[in-house]
Amino acid sequence: MEIFTNSLGNTYFWQGRYREAIEQYQRYIQVAKSDFNRERGYAQIAHLYYLKGDIKRSVDAINQSVKHDKRFMWMPFVLAFEQGKHTEAEKYKKEFLSILSYTEHKERGFLRLYNYHLGIIKMKEGKTTEGIEHFKEALRHHAPIWNIDAQEDCLANAYLQTNNLDGAITEYERILQINPNYPLAYYYLAQAFERKGEGDKAKTYYEQFLRVWNNADADVPEVITAKKRLL
């Protein structure tokens, strides 16, 4: 029951149906048989509210997920950093990094997560080159199938963030060759082409994004932006 409920929440997440995903994670918390799984449920809810731009609800959810396990210090770090609370962010980062072990992650098959997290930290610290190297390393490893996000677009997003538009486009196109229904790859391809001044290509990819995510919640930020651009 736990695995099914969590997996259904992940499926809704990938369809952009965040409201239904959150409802599933709330059910997951109710049926979870361990503090670890309950806290993971809250962490996933916090992640979704963060993606929706609802920082208050994200903070409320994450406050429920850090009671027993330092492995859930990731979202507190991200939220504190985004809010400019750098002292708190540094504290959470140290606590989170204290449980990171390359050997343990390798044995458990979590090296994609290990390098992804290190890459995000380096990017937030302004160490772009190091961050990108961690993302490249992350993509050499399989994603844990239970995780809410496969982080397949981590390198592409880093390239887009640093205005390496050609690198970003190449990476998003690679992702779509693997999975033609990877919705946010279409969205960020549109963003990349828009920045390059190629409006027709941007429009095409915004339209494809909305077709793939035709059941997504109307208040998802990317859906709102895509519809505005097409107007």
Write a short abstract of this structure:
The protein has a domain of 60 residues.
Oligomer designation: single chain
Number of helices: 14
Which bin fits the share of residues in helices? over 70%
Supply Rg. Answer: 18 Å
Main beta-sheet strand count, sense and barrel state: none
How much strand?
under 5%
Q: Compute the number of strand runs.
A: 0
Name the shape in a single word. Answer: globular
Query: Mean pLDDT, as a whole number?
Result: 90
pLDDT below 50 for ≥5 consecutive residues: which ranges?
none
End-to-end distance? 44 Å
* Structural class assignment: mainly alpha
Order of helices and strands: HHHHHHHHHHHHHH
Q: What's the SSE blueprint?
A:
Blueprint: H1 2-14, H2 18-31, H3 35-51, H4 55-62, H5 74-82, H6 86-97, H7 102-108, H8 111-124, H9 128-138, H10 154-161, H11 165-178, H12 183-195, H13 199-212, H14 221-230
Helix pairs in contact: 1-2, 2-3, 3-4, 5-6, 8-9, 9-10, 10-11, 11-12, 12-13, 13-14
Care to describe what's here?
- The chain is mainly α and 231 residues long.
- 71% of the residues lie in helices and 0% in strands.
- The protein is built from 14 helices and no strands.
- The N and C termini lie far apart (44 Å).
- It has a domain at 172-231.
List the keywords.
single chain; 231 residues; mainly alpha
